[in-house]
Design brief:
homodimer, 172 residues, 2 strands, DNA-binding
DNA sequence: TTTATATATGTGACTCACACACATATATGG
DNA sequence: CCATATATGTGTGTGAGTCACATATATAAA
């Protein structure tokens, strides 16, 4: 590794930290709970009927942690537990109306914050950035669970031609 | 905003999330405490003698949160509180030998993880990425405190020619 | 078919990393 | 000299997770 490539790696780390801080702040404004709550809402909007177990893998929480998370979201009236039809042990999770609205807000504000940053680049630079990010995401994709994890806050209406597309059925 | 620029923004968000997860995992392996502990160690290595107050601004914690954080780090034998010479109210924080070693590990593993990702790009692509990241970091730099915050996990030996260079004296 | 084992969810008790309200010591400006 | 601002610390609380354990259903084996 050259000094220059090390410098680039470090710049990437700084950008990741800076942007993550910013996105965290934005989400906190939209959503009074911290942790994986926003990600759970987004994922459930994208894949309604997910089980506790599938969600726990997607969020990389213990199943217990996911139970508590769903308790909180249900208490806030954002998520609804329902008996699953095929397996009586499992539950199926759905967003309520309020949950869908919360998800919309989260996705919108997140994207606005990101656009404010990429907006400092020219059109050509944005194209370059997109291409480089695609390569980075592909290189770091991992298995299906990891891919779903990476996409857990994505806005599927915006992410056309996802570079790490995964068969959603792999989630349950 | 075009659909394409929205897509780029979303890709950036996905990459930030994915890499942040990965860096978090790496730090957790190196350092059994979560939260801002690693950042505190790195910052204190870079700016020895920082006060609780300056550190709390840098980490964006309440001063109380920082007191407790330092309690934990001191308990682990990584940080030492010392009376400040100029202002008897404030304390000066220094890393112990063990603290310096912990910091080294954190910086090394963080950079290794980042290099593993950027390593998937060609030399030219890495140069492009560096240039774009510099622009993004500059666009999002903010005031001196925000800049220091962005750099709180950087390895100063590697970050030559920092794109958002800040006068360190602004920190105290 | 009965039985053993694996899987899905849930509960109780705990921990960690913060926050807020309040107290104390030192600095600083009128 | 005194009022106010600043720096640190303490008591108490909370949110978000963990682990150990319990229960219900599914599946495979005898």
């Amino acid at each position: 590794m050259t000094d220059e490539s090390r410098r680039t790696a470090n710049l990437l780390g700084a950008a990741v930290l800076c942007l993550h801080d910013e996105l965290k702040t934005v989400l906190a404004r939209q959503f009074h709970r911290s942790g994986e709550g926003p990600a759970a809402l987004c994922a459930l909007g994208h894949q309604p009927g997910l089980s506790n177990d599938a969600l726990s893998r997607l969020l990389d929480l213990t199943h217990t942690g996911t139970v508590r998370l769903i308790d909180r979201l249900a208490e806030d009236g954002l998520v609804r537990r329902q008996a699953a039809e095929h397996d009586k042990r499992s539950i199926a999770l759905y967003l309520t109306e309020a949950g869908q609205a919360a998800r919309e807000n989260i996705l919108r504000e997140r994207l606005a914050a990101l656009e404010a940053v990429t907006g400092s680049l020219s059109g050509d630079e944005q194209k370059d950035l997109a291409r480089l990010l695609e390569k980075l995401l592909q290189a770091d994709a991992g298995d299906d669970t990891h891919k779903l994890r990476t996409c857990r806050l994505c806005d599927s209406r915006v992410c056309t031609n996802c570079p790490i597309l995964v068969s959603v059925s792999g989630a349950n």
